[in-house]
Amino acid sequence: MTPRKPEKHTQQPVDSLQKLAATHPRILVLGVGSLGCYLVAKAQLAGLPAQVEFALLHQKQALLLGKPSVHTFLLQGAEADLCSQLSSDDYDRLQTLLLDMDLVILCSALGGHSGEILVELASLLQFQQSVLAFVVTPFHFEGGARQQRALATLQQLENHCSSVLELPNDVLRKAVGGKTALHIALDASNVFLHQLLSQLLNILAEPSLINLDVSDFKHVLKHPGRMVVGWLAMDFARPLGPQLEQLLQQPLLAQFPLQTARAGMVHLEVSADFEMGAFYDLHAALQQRLPQNGLLLSGLRIHPQQAQPRITLCLTGVNKETADPG
Questions:
Q1: Which of 96, 205, 264, 291 has the smallest count of CB within 10 Å of its CB?
Q2: CB contact at 8 A, 321 and 277
Q3: What separation in angstroms does the CA of 7 have from each of 88, 91, 94, 123?
């Protein structure tokens, strides 16, 4: 597909929020399909700074109504070609929006038509912006055809995106507990996904005492491979080693060989009495467990009411080829 050239528009007055966004790197979180739109709509309610913008692509017009602060695009028909599913004006508007961003996070469930749209969106941005695919893959019991379609989409996303954060439903089931009632497990899985996306956006968009921002994240994304993310409440009065092992053995992290990670970010949320020595000890312990990691960026945010320190660990450049298939 040959992208259309966006039309030139006359300069419009900008309000204070637009001026603020113009002075910071801009993030677009774009949801495709029901799950992608759900995650993006939930993240939009978190009240993040103006440089974080949200967009929804869906075939159901009712899901796109009543969202004045969200970019919405109605998909029409079932053709694989995105240009055929959007009106001419919407296609140009979407392309202009994508190319105006510093970081784009694409959210969707794979195994169906939404994944193919994600690939096309990523191809529009290849070599121009940093792109993270935040995607959920099917349960094993959903069948070989759906699994194969998701796998093919993942391979295409790896070719077009800076990094892929794959969240398999089978692994999410382990995270929420296999004996949990089905309807509760599905709700818990959606809440977990929402929390994961919101935590990542919160780190990138909200200022911290030791700050991590979009520019830092783009450096981490330069290392090709898979991304993994996890978080844990920690007690620095206890030995750090067992606690870090607990973090690294969380289902979403343990699905890949973390010792192959090439880069990462570690972000701490702590109370005002947190000691510098504990900050140093944590990084030294992490570096021992991540021997190939050549870039570990650090962030620290003070919360006066923080009862217990919380660590969020994001690793990239993880080698999926040696992942444990179980």
A1: 291
A2: no
A3: 11, 11, 12, 20
Mean pLDDT of 269-281: 89
One-letter-per-residue 3-state SS of 256-293: CCHHHCCEEEEEEEECCCCCHHHHHHHHHHHHHHCCCC
Tell me the longest C-alpha to C-alpha distance in the chain.
61
**Is there a domain that residue 76 lies in?**
yes
Provide the residue range defining the domain that includes 88: 23-205
User: In the structure, how many helices (H) and strands (E) does the chain have?
Assistant: 12, 10
Which pair of tokens denotes residue 276? 């510098």
Q: For residues 277, 280, 281 and 282, what is the CA-based torsion angle, rounded to 10 degrees? A: 120
Any domain includes 127: yes
CATH number of the domain encompassing residue 272: 3.40.50.1440
H helix intervals, 78-181: 82-85, 88-99, 113-125, 144-160, 169-176
Cβ proximity of 190 and 169 under 8 Å: no
> Do both 33 and 176 map to the same domain?
yes
Alpha-carbon distance of 313 to 274, in angstroms, equals 18
> How many CA atoms, within 13 angstroms, populate the side-chain half-sphere of residue 56?
27
Tell me, yes or no, whether 195 and 98 share the same domain.
Answer: yes
Is the Cα dihedral 84, 89, 92, 97 positive or negative? negative
- Give per-residue pLDDT as tens, 86-106: 999 999 999 999 999 999 999
The reported pTM is: 0.86
Residue 242 and residue 138 share a domain: no
Q: How is residue 105 annotated by DSSP?
A: E
Q: Side-chain half-sphere of 172: how many Cα atoms within 13 Å?
A: 24
Whether residues 225 and 309 fall in one domain:
yes
